């Protein structure tokens, strides 16, 4: 059995000064992580505050865009699609969709790579993943 | 009277579809029901607790609607379906500190009458929620997020869909005796795994019902509980904890009950093996499995073996659970199941559950609530109740 993932058009993300570095990166095809300069640790989702120390001593760094499926589910219905948590090679786990895939052949641990997908209207593209 | 406070009143609204009643009216009806149960008057209430299901700013509109005139303590801690379990702990602490004597906790809502697609629609809390920019574009729902907890549990521990199905089988076995249950039909493991897939690996019958209704509790100090003509159900232990995505370090294999449970057990001075009955929040079958492990009823990863073959069925298994049918079969008022968890635990402790599911001498019982989303951010509240 094979069920092709429905190619849905995501709703546009709400942008704000806080998440601007991330979505500016998306527009340039870059996947951005937050980095706490107090601890040297990277984090998702990026924000102007360190979730490790609460200081604003943060910077924004580009991730390689590769990782593996940490967990997944398929929203069944007429237009089925995969919601997943992907563990990036840099460490953080991010919520995303696995696209252009057979929904009946997904598994934790599968290697994936980022692919940006346009959203509704003039919204920023968002990172999704395809099997590597 | 050896506990710091007592649950003296408990009431569950019998409705499951409230087309002709307002949410405020339902809150007031359950409050009155709990007062009647306790043998107290509205004028005795000096503490009020409610959460996000109450219409208006916090609880102010409900205080107005119900005409509560003697309040000197008020708490609107909002943690989704776990709020009311957490409120019990807060009420006990308020009583210990002398802030109130008689605390009322209410929950009510009508998502079914309003046609809400609770688990399968993409829900937003409105503008400015920082995480939603990173979630809404991916069409995440309550069902898919809980499903990912199940996927990971299966991957790490070998848990099966059949084992999860046993949780529903146990709930349905109990629900057949509840005249108010939405789904009173006993189902089999095959029924569950053959029901339509909603969000892999969760089937329709792995999901709780959507219902209207509500419930209320009254917590009172020992001096007042002593004067009432009801069984003495003391709050022996309580705990609350919160878990989130941890900056990208989320671990889906456990819930906040891994922290709230030990707090409650330590306070009560008892062990999981001492508990005769447990109400466990059951938004989905997987929610129950994870909480059972986190509360220490079995080892992490062994929940599947613990629940299979009727492990949760009253009179059959090691740990009778949700003898009212729970959220999976009875009701899930306002999409928030913590209140009804405490209410059925009180019934068991009093010996007032249905005779077919009453646990003999249930003098030590537990209720655990989970609210928010198990796959993103949530809170858990645990209470341990003792009948004296």
Automatic annotation (TrEMBL), chain A:
The residue ranges of the ChsH2 rubredoxin-like zinc ribbon domain are: 23-49
Where in the numbering of this chain does the ChsH2 C-terminal OB-fold domain appear? 61-117
A Pfam family cross-referenced in the UniProt record is OB_ChsH2_C
Domain of life, per lineage: Bacteria
Q: Where is this region: Disordered?
A: 1-21
What protein does this entry describe?
DNA-binding protein
TrEMBL record, chain B:
What EC number is given for this enzyme?
Answer: 2.3.1.9
Keywords from the named record: Acyltransferase, Transferase
Pfam families membership: Thiolase_C_1 (PF22691)
Supply the InterPro entries for this chain.
Answer: Thiolase, Thiolase-like, Thiolase_C_2
Task: List residues of the Thiolase C-terminal domain.
Answer: 240-377
GO MF terms on file? acetyl-CoA C-acetyltransferase activity
**Protein's UniProt keywords contain Signal:** no
Stored NCBIfam families: PRK08142.1 (NF006010)
Protein name per the record: Acetyl-CoA C-acetyltransferase
């Amino acid at each position: 059995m094979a069920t092709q993932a429905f190619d849905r058009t995501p709703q546009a993300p709400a942008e704000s000064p806080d998440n601007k570095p991330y979505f500016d990166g998306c527009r340039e095809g870059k996947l951005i992580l937050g980095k706490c300069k107090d601890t040297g640790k990277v984090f998702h989702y990026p924000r102007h505050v360190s979730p490790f120390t609460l200081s604003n001593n943060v910077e924004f760094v580009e991730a390689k865009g590769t990782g593996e499926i940490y967990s997944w589910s398929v929203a069944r219905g007429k237009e089925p699609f995969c919601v997943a948590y992907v563990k990036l090679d840099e460490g953080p786990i991010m919520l995303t969709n696995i696209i252009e895939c057979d929904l009946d052949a997904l598994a934790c641990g599968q290697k994936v790579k980022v692919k940006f997908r346009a959203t509704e209207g003039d919204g920023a593209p968002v990172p999704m993943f395809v099997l590597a | 009277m050896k506990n710091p406070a007592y649950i003296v009143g408990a009431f569950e609204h019998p409705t499951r579809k409230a087309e002709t009643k307002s949410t405020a009216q339902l809150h007031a009806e359950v409050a009155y029901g709990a007062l009647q149960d306790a043998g107290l008057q509205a004028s005795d209430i000096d503490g009020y607790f409610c959460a996000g299901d109450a219409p208006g700013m916090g609880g102010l509109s409900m205080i107005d609607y119900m005409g509560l005139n003697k309040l000197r303590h008020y708490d609107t801690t909002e943690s989704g379906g776990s709020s009311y379990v957490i409120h019990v702990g807060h009420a006990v602490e308020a009583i210990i500190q002398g802030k109130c004597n008689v605390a009322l906790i209410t929950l009510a809502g009508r998502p079914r009458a309003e046609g809400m697609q609770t688990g399968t629609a993409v829900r937003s809390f409105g503008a400015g929620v920082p995480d939603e920019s990173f979630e809404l574009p991916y069409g995440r729902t309550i069902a898919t997020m809980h499903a990912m907890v199940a996927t990971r549990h299966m991957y790490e521990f070998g848990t099966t869909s059949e084992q999860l199905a046993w949780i529903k089988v146990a709930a349905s076995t109990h629900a057949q005796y509840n005249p108010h249950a939405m789904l009173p039909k006993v189902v089999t493991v095959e029924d569950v795994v053959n029901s339509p897939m909603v969000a892999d690996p969760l089937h329709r019958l792995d999901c709780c019902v959507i219902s209207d209704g509500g419930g209320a509790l009254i917590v009172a100090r020992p001096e007042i509980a002593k004067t009432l003509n009801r069984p003495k159900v003391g709050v022996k232990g309580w705990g609350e904890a919160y878990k989130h995505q941890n900056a990208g370090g989320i671990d889906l294999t456990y819930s906040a009950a891994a922290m709230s449970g030990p707090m409650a057990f330590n306070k009560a001075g008892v062990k999981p093996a001492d508990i005769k009955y447990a109400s466990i929040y059951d938004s989905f079958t997987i929610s129950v499995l994870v909480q059972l492990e986190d509360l220490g009823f079995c080892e992490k990863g062994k929940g599947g073996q613990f629940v299979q073959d009727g492990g949760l069925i009253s009179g059959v298994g090691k740990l009778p659970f949700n003898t009212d049918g729970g959220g999976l079969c009875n009701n899930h008022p306002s999409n928030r199941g913590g209140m009804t968890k405490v209410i059925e635990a009180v019934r068991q402790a009093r010996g007032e559950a249905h005779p077919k599911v009453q646990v003999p001498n249930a003098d030590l019982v537990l209720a655990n609530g989970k609210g928010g989303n198990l796959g993103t951010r949530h809170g858990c509240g645990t209470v341990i109740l003792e009948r004296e």
